[in-house]
Every structure is written in C-alpha cells, then in structure tokens.
Design brief:
- Four copies of one chain form a homotetramer.
- The first copy, chain A, is α/β, with parallel strands linked by helices.
- Helices cover 46% and strands 11% of the residues of chain A.
- Chain A starts with 12 loop residues before the first strand and ends with a helix.
- The interface between A and B is large, with 102 and 102 residues.
Chain lengths: 442, 442, 442, 442
C-alpha cells in the first residue's frame, strides 16, 4: 500500500483567528457557511488541476526542473503514474476541494503505439474512478493535450497535415469516452497550437474550416455516446503560437456563430489569458456572462506588467469580488466551477507551498464571494445602475429598447426637445462604494 | 474668389530619379501604370481624410495647437469652413488622390440649434458637390462624429440616456442623407465612445442591445432612401474609452452575427487600431478578408512601442506589401479604398509637411503593391503554401475538408497508419523569400 | 467678496460608520490619529494639484470640454484666475489636505509679452501667499510648464533651437523665485517634451548635454537665491513624446550620475508613469527608495490594460499598502508628500465628484498606511526576509558582503562544500501573509 | 573520424541573381566587398551562437523537443559533446561566419562534482582551440550560464544564499580562465535570474550590493590573469524573473556608475530585449552608443505584438539599416560583433532551416550596411540634422552648449528677443528620405 505523500500536513481547517504567519489555515473559506441561499462550497466549486500541481517540475525556457516530489521518481511508468495519482487524491482530501481536472496525458504516460497509449489511459482511469469514489471527489472537466507532443507543433485540428488532424480526432474520441466514464461535468478544448507563427506559410480559411469541422465531429460523437457534459472552449490570444485563433471571448463567439456551433459550446475563461489579450482582469468573465456563454472559470492571475502566461494563484481580493459578483448575478457557475489553473512558482519547491498557494487562493475567492454577496444583497450599486438607464423605460427610450424606433423618430424627438443635459458618470463614487464592500465589511 | 492655399506647391509628379532629398515627388506611384490588369490608381484608391488634414491643430493632451494655416482663421463661421474646403480640394488636386472622406462636423460648424446645424451642413454639402464635380474627386465615405461633443461623453447609441441616443440617431439620419447626395461609396461607423470606463456603472446587455437596434434603424433608413453605399464598422479596442465594444475585427463580427446584422455591414480596418488590440500590423486586414468582411482600409500606422493611437503615415514597405498582397488576393478593395487616416506630427508645422506625409505614404503603398503583385504573379509563396496543405485533397483529408469524417474515422486512420512524420514549417525560408520580393525586385 | 464655490459641501468628516452609499466621508483617514509615532497627517502629507482639479476641462484627443464650473467663465483674465484660486483654497479647506502643488501657467495667464506674463504671475502669487496663510495651507512643490506652449513642441532644455532653451531657462528662473517666495518645500521638473518623436532628426548627445547644463544652471540659481527646497525630477517613459529621456527611476539616476548631478536632485515618482514603463505599480517607488533617491510621490494610478496616462485616483488598497510600507521603511517622505496628480474622469462632471475622488483616494492611502504600519510593527515579513539572507552574516558570506572576497575564495568554498541545497522562495506564503494584513486587520 | 553533419549543404555562395526560391545563397553579403574603407566582413563581424544553434531542441513551456540532429544522440557524454562541436565548426565553415559564442555549459556537460565539471570543460576547450585554429574561427565572447541550474533559481550573484553566490563566483573564475585560453575578444554577463519574482521576499539593497561586489571580483581576477577581452553586461527587463536588475541600457549604466564600475564594462545590446523594455527596436543600440557604452550586439528580433523573448532571426532591413547606421557612426563594433542570438522556430526542424535562418539574417544586415553606408556617405540626413542644431554654435547657444550660461542670461535673452518662431520638425521628410535609402538604392 501507499506511503502518505504529505505526512506533515493535516487537513486544512477553518480558523479565522489564526496568527498572521500561519498560512495553512482558512480564514474565510468555510465550506458549509451559507451565503445567499447556498453554501460557499456550492458557489465556489473549487477544482485542483492535475497538470500544474502534479506534473509541473519548474522547468522554464531558461532553466531546468527545480521541483522534485517524494512520490515521483520522474519515470514514465504506470507505477509512477499511480503513485502520483494517490498523492493527488490525498492532496485533494486534505485541501478540501471537491473537484479536479486533467489532460489525458497528465494522468497516463504516452505508449510506444496509439493502442498502448490508450491502454495506459484506461488503466489510470480505472484507478481515478476508484479514488474519486473513495474520496468523494468529482471530475469538473477533462481535456486532451493536443499541443505538447511534437506532432502538434504546426497545430492539431488546424494542422496543414491531415494525418495530424486524424491524431487529434483519435485522441479526442478517446478523451470523450474517458470523460463520460468518469462523470466529467464538462469537457474543455484549449487550442494551444491552433493558430500561426507566420501568416506567410498559412492558409487561414482552410485552417478555420478544418477546426469547425473538428468541433462538429466532437458534437456528433458526444451525442452518439450520450455524454451530457458541457463542451467548453478556452480562449487565449497567443503563446505558444504568435496568434491563436481563440484570441478572446468575443473571437471564439464569432467563430462559433460563423459555423453555427454556438448552441453546443460555452466558454472556459482564464483571466490570465484575458489580460494577455489586452483586457482588464475580469473583462472576459463579464463579457462571456453577458453573452450567455460563461461556462467555467480557470481561476488564476498573471502580473499585469508581464507579457506571458504565469498562471499564478489568484491573490487579489478586489479582482475576486468582481468575478464573484458576475458569478452570483448569473446564478452560479454550475456545471462549471473555479478551477485553479495555477502553479506554485518554480522557486516554491516545498510540498507545503503547493498547499499554501491553493489555500491563499481559496481564501481570496471566499473573501470575494462574501464581499460580492453583501454588495448584491444591499443593492447599493444595482439601484444606482438601474436609475442610470431609467430613460429607456418609457417614451422614445422604450421604443429604442424594444426595437420599434426609427432614425426619423430620433430626429423628431431632438427637434422637439433640443439638447440633452450632461449627466455625470460618477466613476469615483462607484469605485468608492465598491472599495467599501471589498474592505470594510466582514 | 479664393486665394491659392498652397501657392508654392505644384502638382506632385512621378519622377523616379529625383535626388534623395526631394520629397515632393513620387518615385513609385504612377497612377496610370498597369499592375496585374488594373492601373495603380484603381488598385490603391487613395483617399485623403478631412479631419486630420484640414481640422487638426496639433493639440494633444499635454499641449495646445501648433499648426496654423493661412486659409483658416480658427473661427467657426461658414466663411471659414468654405475657405477650408477650397484649400482641401486644391490639396487633393495637387496631390492627385481621387477620393476624400469626412465626418459631418468636420466640414460644417455646429449651430446653436439642431436645425441650424443641419442648415450649415446643407450649405457645405452644396459646395462639396460642386468642388467634387469641378476636380473629379469622389467621396469614398462619410461618417458622423458621435464622440466629440460633450453630449456623447457616456456613449452615443450605447448612452445610458435615451435622449443622447436620439441625438445620435438624428445625426446619422442626416449623415446618410448627405452621403447619398454626395454619392458616397461607403458609410462608416466608428464608435469612439461606445464602450465603458468602468464596469461598475455599466449595464453591458442594455448597451449592446441598444447599439444593435441603432444599426437596425440605420439599415432600415438606408434602404428607405435607396442609398447604395456599403455600411462599414471600424474596430478599435480602447481609447478614448477604457474598453470599446468594437474591440477588433472578430469582436465586431461576433456582435454582427449575434444580432443578424452581418449581411449589412463590412469592416473598415485601421492597422494602428489593430496594433493597439495586441495583434500584428496586418492581422485584422488579413483576418477580415478571410472572413469575407474586409470593406476598406484606414491606411496608417502607430509605433509598436506606444500604447495609444498616433495615426502616423504608413511608411513601412514590408507592412504595405503584406496589406496589398491581401487586397490583390481578394480582388481589390472597391467600393472601399486606402484612406489616409493619418496626420502630420504636431511638430510638422509647414504646409509642405502635409504633402510630404501623403506623398511618402502613397509611395510606400505603391512600392508594396508592386512587390505584392510580383510575388503573386510569380507564385513562389502560393505554390509552397498549396503544397503544404495537399494532404486535404484526397482520402481522409478530403473527408475532413468536406465535413464528412468522424472521430472514429480519425482513430481508424491513426490505428492503421501510426504516427505522422514531422514536417518543417520553414518560417525562415518563407521570410527570406518575402524579403527578396520586398527589397530586391524593382 | 467671493461667492462660495461649493455651497453644498461641508468640510469632510471622519465617520467610519457612515452608510455604504455615502462617499463624502472619511472612513479611515483621521488626520490626528497616531500611527507608529506620528499622526496620519504627518505620514501622508496629502497634496491637491491645481492643474487637474482647477484647470482640467475634460478635453481629450477625441472630444471637447465636458466640465464647466460655476466660478470659472473660461476666460484668460486675472479676475477669472483669482476666482479660481479662491475656489481652490475653499476646496482645500473643506477637503482637509494641508498641501497644494501647481505649474506656473496653472495659476496665472500667459501675457502678450514675457514681462506681462511675469507680472500676471506675481499678482497671483501674492494672492496665493495670502490664501496659504489664511487657510494654513503650504506649497508642497511648484513646477514650470515647459511642454504646453507650442514653442516647446520640439523640447524645452533639449530643443534644437537655443532660443527655446532660453525661454525654458527664463521661465525656470522666475519659477524658482516664486517657489522661494511661497515657501515651496520642493521644486519639480517633468520634461514632457524632453525626448524625441523620431531618432532620424535627433542628436541625442547634444540634447542630453544641454539638459545637463540646464540642470546645472538651476542648481547655481537655487543656491544663489538661497532656496532650500528639494529639487525633484519626475520620470515618465513616453507620452507626449515617443521617447522621453527621463524614462524611469533608473534612467534618471543614470543621467544624474553621468553628469554629477545626483547630489542635487531626488525623484518624484508617479506610479502611473511607472506602469507605462513596463514595471509593476510600486516598482519605481521601491527602487528609488532603495537607491536613496525617493523624494516625493505623485499618488495616482492608471489601468494596467491601457497604454497611456490616465491619472486616476488611487483606489487600490493593496497597492497603497506596498507604497506606504516603503514610505514608513525610509522614515517618511518629508519634505515630499503624496500629491494627488489625479483627475476626475471627463464623465464625472459634478463638483462633488471632485471631492469624492480625493476622499476615496485619501481613504485608500490611509487604509494602506494602517495595514503597512501593522505589518511593520508585527515584523512578520521582515523577520522572514532577514532570515532569508542570514548566510551573509558570517564566513564567506560576510566577506562577499563587505567586498573582501575573491573569485578564488568562491571556488575554494565550493570545492570544499559542494553544491548548495535548494531553498524555497515561498512566494505564496509571503503573498498570503501580505493579504492578511491588507484585508483582515482593522 | 567524424561523419559530415551537413552532407547536403555546400558552402554558402554569393550569388546576387539566384532565383527567388533559392534561400541558401547570399544576395547581398559579399564578405570581401569594400564599404566605406572596410570589408563587409570587418564591419559586420558575424558570430553564430552555440546555445540556440547546437543545443536547442524546440522545447517550449507548452511542448517537448521537436528538433533532433543526426550528430546528437541527446546524451550528456563527452563523446556526444565532441560530435556536436565538430558539427558546429562544419556549420561555421560552410556558413562563412568568422566568430562564435558560447556559455560554459553549452559546450561541456555538467559533471557529478564541481571538479568533474571543470575537467569536462577543459577537455572540450582543448577541442575548441584546435577547431578554431583549423577553421580560422575566433571566439567573439564566452559567458557563464548562471541561470539554468536549479541552484540559481533565486539568483546567482543576487542569491539570498551565499553558498549559491560562491558557485557563481567559482563558475566565472573558470569561465574567465577558459575565455582567456581561447582568445575571447569579450566576456558577457547576462543575469537571467538576477532580479526578483516578488518584492515581498526580497532585500533589494543587499542583492544589488552583492552584484556590485561580484563584478568587482571579476575585474580583479581579469586583471590578475591578464585577460584583455572587454567585459560586457547584457540588459534584459524581465523573463525569466518578473523584474531583472539589468532592465535596459540606462538601468545598467545607473548601476555601473553607482558602483564605480563603468570604466570596466560596456553593454551587449539585444534588440529583442530592448523591445520587451518598451523601447523601439533600435533604441538601446543608439542610446548605449550615445553614452559611449555600446560594446556588442546580439542581432535578433522579437515580434512587437508578443511579450516574451522569441529570439527570431533579424529579417527587417529597415531596422538593420538603423542599427548599422549607428555602428558605422561609432566607427565599428570591434572588439564586439553581430552575434546571432537567434534560433530557428521550433517548427523549423530541418538542418537546412538552420542555414537559411542565418543566411537570411546575414543578408538582412548586409543590406542594412549598404543602405546605411550610402546614407552616411551622401550626408543627406546628417546635413539636415546639423542645420537643425546650428543655433548652438554661437551667442547664447554657444554658452549653453559649453556650460557657461546662467538662467539670468536666458531671461535677458528672452526679454530682448521675445518669442522664438516655430520650426517644423519635418518627421515625414526625414522618414521619406530614409525610406529612399532603404529601398531604392542598390
């Protein structure tokens, strides 16, 4: 039987009054505490990702691995993969998240043939099913890694070589089967190599058409096997490619609508990606929600002064409050959740850093949830916003709003009523109220 | 009668062998020279914009006006507006562009009432019609300025106040009427204030719905009066607002498709805006063209190290070659054109700088046209690209391409054929060939 | 006598328990409250700037003025300038800041001759002296506007024309005289046009040498008249020029050291500028302090997703805590202060918005001060950091630290002791502790 | 004996009239061709770097190795290292560059002890010396890799652990010895980990002081062994760390002057790094040259729309012309050179891509050299610039220039002469002339 992976770590407890230098306690996340009619756990639906937490080694473009784990001998054997999975579920159980996520290649080693690769995956999936049951953990989503293997260097579904496209298709068929088996509540596509490095060697139209056909095959297969999980696309503007087709929320929506795929997919928004696309942290979360397309969130952050993906743990309570405000306003994220697509820094080499990162982030999101709930319940901002648009409730405003006004109506109105008065937008007033909810209320 | 505005400037001549320090000659732009079956003039469809060239004063956020013109006394009178318009048409005639563009408020002063404003506009439109005829100049596009007046500070069609929306509607009704009268080949919408400064005071869904209704009114009125010009939306990510709803080409396409407006609009792409959205210079030109939505181009540039709109004259031949390659490949821009939405630097205070900027830019685009034509005619890159995707012509590739393949077909193929071989993307080879066409061929 | 400018606004009171939608109260800033041995007022040394708060009109590159004030008829007369100054001091008195700042041209209109300009300034300075005394307000710093007038379009001290350099010199002579008269505690140089738009027309060496000579003249004149204020340079990377010579803190330090001017100047750091230079918000504050060169702070913020100067009120408590931590650690900012180089948004057109912006920002900095003080007093982070570098206290580490070690010593040590063990950097642990101080402690 | 590594590649020939799709020929680089009194080879001093060209595997943060070479079995043995080095010198000989560069760890494998590591290095240095002699290749510079090994994750000379500092010192002692042995003309320091990920755990003053002491030890040891090569520091703003102390040229100069090290070091400027610091491509080359500190250039480029280091081959002739203009104006780069710190894209998997990248880049720089030389020889721009500053040749301008003017002199001048006239900066004129030299002249 298995040795404990984290012998020095006890299950993380809710201890709001712990001393300042204790960072292995929750001060705010209290899973069963009720907030606006649901438990914190139900609102937050925290998930730990397998890749960053159990496959990352600290390798970066300028340096080798820094992180070694007692349970991981670095080999590509099934034995090692199993030890790793036991460690992961021990981690989930001690941390207290109820969901996990993975790529196919995270949990099972690539074999020497396609057949062997699938057999490896099946064996690991069997173990995962057993550990899920044992620990009461569920699969938020699964995904296929269609970007790490050299075969995908020029793209997966957008590859100039149909043989590579076929590999991507074969992998996703298996991935959907496995997700179905493990009860995944969603299935994610992040097209890390679906884009281009240079327009000079690229046929954009062919590549985008092939991607659309790929997604149609996915929908057909999903329906065939009766998989009920939500399909999600995760936008990212660039990196590793110079330009990725799924640049941001609106770009993906344009693509889906162009190919009549929008009924079948929602978006998995990662704020670090949003920042890299030139938007504010919360922008794509809010925009996707407004478009009715927010499916799930990869809760992380970048540093705004950096131009690449750093996948840091989200530690900013103000940003968390904006995100949770949107989540509450759309009635929750289910079947999506808050997946920590975040990694400890490569300098954070201790196993306890892995806990601390998650704990700090969970507390940050919980603080945000509480602040957002209070803000929404008291209605201070909402009333002000509603008042701001009240002119659309009657008269010409109402006709504009319901689409029955004409340009001539507009002109007639203006000829009669002259110029409108100027109305302050009051940004500083709104910001000050928001700060009050973020900082002053417990 | 009018004094000449540019008495020291003769019509710009094509003199490819002029000495290096002469910058008031064309070395490459030779309007009637045939390139791939059309004259350069027909391919390039150069247009001069009224706002930057005849209304700009050099004012910037940190300093006052630097530019004064002999024909402009700075007053808001119709007399001054007319002197300005005569100067503009003298400029067009000497420069040799065949198109111009304007905002309603560029050519005629705002009056003390809506009625007077429209009368002012009518009077200036009459003069414009006469000068167009006299000089053989056509109107590439007109547009309404829905962002400068304080009434629009919180948006035009997306304003929280229906009264302001009405103003925007009234202005556009008049603008379409006027565009129709002057034979505009297109009509452009740039929503400079259609966006938000803070999400805290903003109802995204209301604002986007109102914008969509606004565009529907535009289509209805256009059809009513029989205006045949192409409607165009110009994306910009931000500035003056923190976030503009028309962020980039794909964002506008998402919006248009969401509201079933995509049949009625195309895009007017400005590369300086594209750069501000985090893309490469040519990205939105190429992407809009691939999506069948490229209507016209605002030919300018920014500096890649700056984060705001500088509207510089396009002086980079390599970038121009990429743009003109796309234009030729889609069969030309008509009824759109290359509109120089570019201004002389505020330090370039001489009237001759205004000519030099345009001349240098026209030569840059003409150099690009010649290089792109040669590249396309010789087919060097096109053959290589075609070869790169040849696997989609038969077998499984063909089924993927025509949408009849399934994920199971993909898996069967891979189980039979194993892993694909790795194929070089050859970026350096493509870049070197491209450089050869940009630099070595006359 | 003067009509009250803000008849509806009472002096802002400290009322920590005011309802959420009241934004004209301090919840945290309590001027006389003691924090680590000084009053909050002494630590924070708040200053209101004249330009944004009493000269801004809402003009931006895409639109005209939006802001009008009852006391300002828009004219360039001395009468108007005086009404404005009375309004400003009424504002200071009601807000409760003890310092103000101005540019020469903010307070007095440019005349038709240099002589008249100076007479205008003298007249306004007399009024300022009287109002300072009457209200107990002091001048944190004065500065000369060497960027707005068209004469400075190609630079002031770096202008290619010596005649323009002479204008800058003449203005600064008068500015120093006036600062001395009003008891300014500092004098600031922001070289908004000291840079270039294109390298092609620029002689870098000449321009930088002239700037250095300019600063030498300043030092000589300052000593001659016995002005004791601290001279400060304010870095900014770009805007309005493409490149500004005072790019960031380290660039200015390089310039000062190259020209042996570093004894005479310190830095006035503006975080919005720091962000535009690609650094994190607090970077130049921390770096300048580490270099012993932090003189004063222009307390404001930008939006990290924007590439131009927005001069927003600082509303982020976490960022404020980092800044105030640095300020406390260097023993305070005196004779510098926290100058709100911030403006209400152009959509915030009500006079009360001007108060709300300052109140929200003062509360933000006060929250930051309290959090930083608690963090420093408890020593939680400091102890951890000290421990992290403890190996430099003895042995080879000590020799390295005092500069007596050699490369051979290093090699000998490594040959004897082999490889070092890997030590976690614990970023997540530090971030979690920091969050605790920002959010949990009152 | 060794098998040929590139059996299909002949030495690259100068064939200006080769067909468009031949990319293994020089069209412009003709080593012995005279330009302004030197051969192209002497001006350009091309160098190939070992790390990107012979150690890169295509690994990136999202995918594994894509590049395999016939001569490299992937092992860390000395036999493999030797095969690699033979391949490298065959490459140099066929390409025709006369210089190379390397990190210590590029050419020799790390051993199990410090002693073994040094023995490995000695053995490889012996082979390098022999191959240098055999092929007539020289060492432009050597450097130590103080960033890849996990021991350096928290910094090398700025590490919180003195033991790690000692490792860095030991490595550099050996590196200088080896550089001396191989006749290196320079020695470079790039401090990839000298910076911080978070300010919270960092003592800036200690770290910068230790770095300064480190450089003092380097100078002492260099003088002790009589190594005559130029010491160089290579600025980079960020990546892999969030902030690197050597942010850009001016930051390094500030550091060097603060610690009186500026006599001993010059700068090795990499334009890709310059772009990441928010400057224009050529900025740090031009600025370092103006400050008398330009020692060598890492000739590469990034994509301006990307926020990380891509180390692409420089393919932009306009940018190359700006760089070579600076190089000619300072009288050449010797003992520095143009080192191609550039890598083939990870999708460019063929050995011929490695040649094509270098050939395309060498031709780009050669085109730039020819254009710059013609521009300088004809003096068109230089005369205009000189004229622009002519007011500093006499009168007050002369006194300003030689540092004898006072603020009072300035005022007296202005009171006498009034306001200066406005002089156009003529940016468009300069740009048009520059384009003419880049594009029209052969």
């Amino acid at each position: 039987d298995m040795k404990e992976a984290f012998p020095d770590i006890s299950p993380i407890a809710y201890r709001p009054d712990a001393p300042a230098d204790e960072t292995l306690v929750f001060r705010h996340y209290n899973p069963s505490q009720q907030v606006m009619g649901r438990s914190m756990q139900e609102w937050l639906r925290f998930s730990v990702c397998y890749w960053h937490s159990f496959r990352a080694t600290g390798l970066d473009p300028f340096g080798g691995p820094t992180i070694t784990r007692s349970w991981d001998d670095g080999s590509d054997t099934l034995e090692n993969a199993k030890r790793r999975m036991h460690a992961a579920f021990e981690f989930f159980a001690k941390l207290g998240n109820k969901y996990w996520t993975f790529h196919d290649r995270d949990i099972a080693p690539e074999g020497s043939s396609w057949q062997e690769t699938n057999r490896n995956l099946d064996e690991m999936v069997e173990l995962a099913a057993q550990l899920q049951k044992q620990h009461g953990i569920k699969l938020l989503w699964a995904t296929c890694n269609l970007f790490s293997h050299p075969r995908y260097m020029n793209g997966a579904a957008s590859n100039p070589d149909a043989h590579v496209f076929a590999c991507a298709g074969a992998a996703v068929r298996k991935g959907l089967e496995v997700a179905h088996k493990l009860g995944a509540e969603n299935f994610v596509f992040w097209g890390g190599r679906e884009g281009f490095q240079t327009l000079l060697n690229t046929d954009l139209n062919k590549e985008m058409k092939h991607m659309a056909n790929f997604f149609r095959m996915v929908v057909a297969y999903k329906e065939k096997i009766g998989f009920k999980g939500q399909l999600l696309i995760e936008p990212k503007p660039k990196e590793p490619t110079r330009h990725q087709y799924d640049y941001d929320a609106m770009t993906v929506i344009a693509f889906l609508k162009t190919h009549q795929l929008d009924k079948h997919f929602k978006l998995n928004i990662e704020p670090n990606h949003t920042m890299l696309a030139g938007h504010s942290y919360e922008h794509d979360v809010v925009m996707a929600s407004a478009m009715g397309m927010l499916g799930s969130i990869d809760a992380n952050t970048g540093s705004p002064d950096l131009g690449w993906d750093t996948d840091q743990f989200p530690m900013d309570v103000k940003a968390a409050t904006m995100v949770m405000k949107t989540v509450i306003e759309q009635g929750g994220l289910q079947p999506g959740g808050l997946n920590f697509d975040a990694k400890v820094r490569r300098e954070s080499t201790d196993p306890r850093d892995l806990f601390i990162g998650h704990v700090g982030a969970m507390d940050t999101m919980a603080r945000g949830l509480k602040a957002a709930a209070r803000l929404i319940q008291e209605g201070t901002l909402a009333r002000a916003v509603q008042q701001r648009y009240s002119s659309y409730k009657s008269g010409l405003g109402h006709k504009i709003s319901n689409g029955t006004a004409t340009l001539e109506d507009c002109e007639a109105y203006v000829l009669k009523h002259g110029n409108p008065s100027v109305t302050s937008g009051q940004q500083e007033h709104y910001e000050t109220i928001f700060n009050h909810y973020v900082h002053d209320l417990k």
